[in-house]
Amino acid sequence: MSLESKNTLFLEVAHDWHLEGLYQDLATIKERRSRESGNQRRTIDPRQTQLSDMERLHLRGFLAGLSIPDLANVLGVGVNGLRGELTSRLYSYLKELTGIRERFCKKRIMAALTERGYRRSKGDLATRQILCALPARDSARFEGRDRVWEQLNNWLTGPGGDRLLVIEGAGGTGKTALALETVQRLVRRGDCPFGAVIFVSAQATQLTGMGILPKLQSTPTLDGLLVTIAEQLQRPIPDRCQDERSRWQWVWQQLTRQHTLLMVDGFEALSDPAAIAAVLCDLPATVRVLITSRQRLPFERSIRLSGLESSAALAWISARAEDAGWPWLPSDYQTLVEITGGLPGAIAWVLGQVATGQSLPWAIAQLQRPDCVVARFYCHSALATLQAQWAAAPLEPPAAAPALSPQGGALTSLEHWPTSERVESQIQALATPLLAILSWFARPVSQATLAVIADQEPDAPALSAALSKIARESIVELNGVGHYGLTPFMRQYVATQLVSEWPVAAALAARERWVQWAIDYARQHGHEDRLEWPTDTTALDAQWATLQDVLDWCLAQGWLDRFWDVFRPLRGYTHFRGYWRDRIARNTAGLAIARAQGDRTLEAQFLFDRGWTRSLNHDTPQLARAMDDYRAAWELREFLNLDWQIDLLINQFRLATLLLDRDSPQQWHEQIADWVNSPRLDSDRATRLQCQWLYYQADALARQGRERSRALQYYRQALELAQCIHWNRAVIYIQSSIGTLQMEQSLYHACRDLQASHDMAENVLDLRCLAYCKQHLAQAKKRLGKLTEAKQMTQGAIALFEFLQMESEVAQLQQLMVTLP
User: Fold this and answer.
1) What is d(CA 27, CA 527) in angstroms, rounded to the nearest whole number?
2) Are 667 and 657 in contact (CB under 8 A)?
3) Do 750 and 739 touch, CB atoms closer than 8 A?
4) With contact defined as beta carbons under 8 Å apart, do 303 and 154 qualify?
5) Nearest by Cα to 722 from 731, 732, 711
6) Residues 365 and 353: beta-carbon distance below 8 Å
7) DSSP tag of 38
8) How far apart are CA 456 and CA 462, in angstroms?
9) Distance of alpha carbon 687 from alpha carbon 684, whole angstroms
10) What distance, in Å, lies between the first and last C-alpha atoms of the chain?
C-alpha cells in the first residue's frame, strides 16, 4: 500500500473525535520531549514539533478501535515492529496527555480522552452526514421483536467483538424487516457509529399482494457485490481494475477509510455463497457485516427468528383491523394467528388481501391451499432448494471439510457431510419420510422419536445428517433441547405436497408406528382412571394437537381398537380440560363405525362416553340426550366388563338426579346397593362406588333445596371415603359442594372450603371444577360485601365457562354480574 493510500485511512474517525485538537496537543508533548532530550541551544527539527503522517495514521487507527494485529494487517507491516513503534511513541504521548501513569490500557485512555472533551458531543454527531441508501421497510412486521431488536442494536453499537452476525430463520419471519428497522433507527438517532451503511440483496423475487414480483436490484454475484459497495460509497471502481481480484483489492482499500456496516440480504440466494463468505470474512477491521439468511450459516454469532408469539401477533392484527375499521372479532384474530403460525409475511399478505376488499374467510381459505402464492414463495422455494442440493450433492466431499454437527442440526461447515456413497444415498432417501413424519406432529419431537417412526436407529449417521441438512434450510425448527418440528404453515404445505412422493406401503407402516407412539405416549402421561387427574399435564398439553390427529386418523382407517388404546388414558384429561365438542364428534363417528363393523362392545363404549361427555354440560336438552345414550348402552351391558357396567350404573343414577326424575333414582338405588355389597368388587372399588353414591344423593338433595342437614351429612361421609382411598379429584369436588351448602349457615366456613377447592383445582388445572369454584366463591364474596372480589371471581368464572361452552352457566353468571357494581 502506498503512502498516499495510507494517508486516507480511518479519516472517518473525525466524525466522532476532534482530530485536529488531538494532533496539536500530542504534537506539543512530542516537541517538549524533543527539547528535553536535546541541546537547548540546538535548532529543533520542524518534524519534531508536529505529528508525522504515520503517527497521525496510528492515532486514527487507535481511535477507530483497531487492535495492533488488525492495524498491522491493514498497513501490511509486522505486528511486533508496530507494537514497539506504538509503545515508544503514540502510546507514551497518550499516557502523558491523559495523566495516566499505570500500564497502558486502551479502554482507560479512551475514557480519559472523552472526559477531556476530545470526543464530539451528540449535537456534533447529529450534524454529520452518513453514506446510507437503505430500501423502504414494513415497520408493521417489526411487531413483537423488542428482545431481538435490543440484541441486534447492542451488537451494532457495542465495542469490538464479532464482526459478522447472521439473522436466520424461515421465509416470512421478518429477518430483513428487523435488520432494516434496527439500522434505520440507529441512523435516525444521530449517534450511528458507521460512516457508511451499505445494503446489498441477493433476493431475486418479492412477495406482494399482486403476487411474486422480480426485484430489480438483485445482486447475487461476487462481482455485483463489489460494484454495489463501490457505488454506495460513491467511489466507482476505476477502469484499470479489469479482473475480479483487482476490483476486490480496490474495494477493500476503500472500506478501510471509514467504519462501514455492510448488510447482505438473502445469503441463501447468492450464486457462489462459499466464495462470498470467504470475502466477507476477509474484509478489513473497519467493516461489520450483517447477514440475513434462510439457511443456518457457520458463523459464531447469530439471531434466530421464528413466527411471532401469539400475543404479539394478536396485538399487531387487532391494531391493523381497528385502524382499518374491519368488523373482526377476537376469534377472527386468533384464527389468523393459528393458521399462519404467527408468520409475519403470511399475516401481512392476508391483511393486504382484506385491504383490497376480499373477505377474511376467503383470504384464510386461500392461505390453506397448497398452491397459494404465499405457500409457493415461503415453502416451495425452500423445498426446491433442498431437493436441488440432494441432486447436486457430491458423493465424496473434500477431505479437509469438517463434519456437520449431528447435535441439534447446527452446521459447522459450508461443505457437505463427509459420508460414504452408501450413507449419502441413505441421507437422500430419508429426506421425504422425515419431512412427512414431522408434518404429523403439531409440536417438536426428539430425534429418538423420529427414528422410531422412520424405522431408523436413533444415532444413525444418515438420520442425523438428513435432519441437519433440512434444518440448515430452515424448513425444520429446532428448539433448545434438540427437538425438531415444522412451523404450522410449513407443516400444512409438506403434508399436502409430499403425499405422492412416498410409497404407500412405506407410508402406512410409518403411520402404524406413529399410532403406536401415541399409544405409548398417552399411557405414559395420561391416566387409565378417567375420574382422576394425570400427575403432570405438561406433556399432554404439548402434544394434544398431535394426539387428536392420531385419534382422527384411527377413525378414518376404522382402527377402533387402536383408537381406544390412545383415547382411554386421555378421557380424564379431556374431561377437565374441556375438549368436549371434538370428543362428542369423535364418539358419534366411532359409534357409526362400530355399528357398521358389528362390534357391540365398542358400540356400547362409544354410547356411554358420548352420554358422559354430554352430561358434563348442565343443559337440560343435553342431559336428556345423554340419558338416551346411557339407556342405549345399558341395553348392551352384557358386552361390557365390570368397570364399564358400574360406571354406566352410577352415571344413570347421577343423571336421573340432575333431571329431577323422582321415580327413576329409586330403581338405581337398589341396584347400586347390591353392587356396593357385591363380592365381585375389591374394597377400594366398592368404597369408590359408595362415595359416588353418597355424593350424588347429597347433590340431589342440595339441588332440590330439601333436607340440607342430611345432604351435608352425605357430603361429609363421601369426603371421608374419598380421603380414605386418596381419591384427590373427588376430595376437591366434595369440598366445593360442602362450601356451597354451608353458605346459609357460615359464610366463613363456606369461603374456607371453597378457597381450598379453588386452589387445588387451579394447581391441577381442572378447568371445569375451577369454574364452579369461582362461581361459588363469587356468590360467597357478594354475601360478605366484598363486591370487588366477587366481580373478579365472576369474570373469571364466565371466561372459563365460555371456554368450556357451558352456556347455561354463562347466562347465570351474567345475571350475577348485573348486580355487581
Assistant:
1) 83
2) no
3) yes
4) no
5) 731
6) no
7) S
8) 9
9) 5
10) 82
Cell of 275: 466464495
Q: What pLDDT score does 449 carry?
A: 93
Cell numbers standing for residue 739: 362450601
Amino acid present at 556: A
Residue 485, sorted as left (phi over 0), alpha (psi -120 to 50) or beta, turns out to be: beta
Q: Is 404 left (phi over 0), alpha (psi -120 to 50) or beta?
A: beta
- Taking 70 as the pLDDT cut, the residues of the chain under it are 1-7, 37-49, 121-128, 137-143, 159-161, 190-191, 385-425, 480, 499-500, 534-535, 660-666
Please state, in angstroms and rounded to a whole number, the distance separating the CA atoms of residues 125 and 129.
Answer: 9
The predicted-structure confidence for 134-149, as pLDDT tens digits, reads as follows 887 654 456 678 788 8
Q: Which residue has the cell 359464610?
A: 747
d(CA 599, CA 593): 9
Q: 3-state SS of the chain: helix, strand, coil percent to 5?
A: 65, 5, 30
Torsion sign across C-alpha atoms 207, 211, 216, 218: positive
Cell 413424519 -> residue = 437
- Residue by residue, DSSP assigns 296-351 as --S-S-EEEE-SPPHHHHHHHHHHHHHHHT----HHHHHHHHHHHTT-HHHHHHHH
DSSP-assigned letters across all residues of 77-138: --HHHHHHHHHHTHHHHHHHHHT--SS--HHHHHHHHHHTT-BPPHHHHHTS--EE-PPP--
| CA–CA gap between residue 422 and residue 395 (Å, rounded) | 9
Could you give the maximum distance between any two Cα atoms of the chain, in Å?
131
Interacting residues of 438 by C-beta distance below 8 A, sequence separation 6+: 445, 450, 476, 484, 485, 486, 491, 494
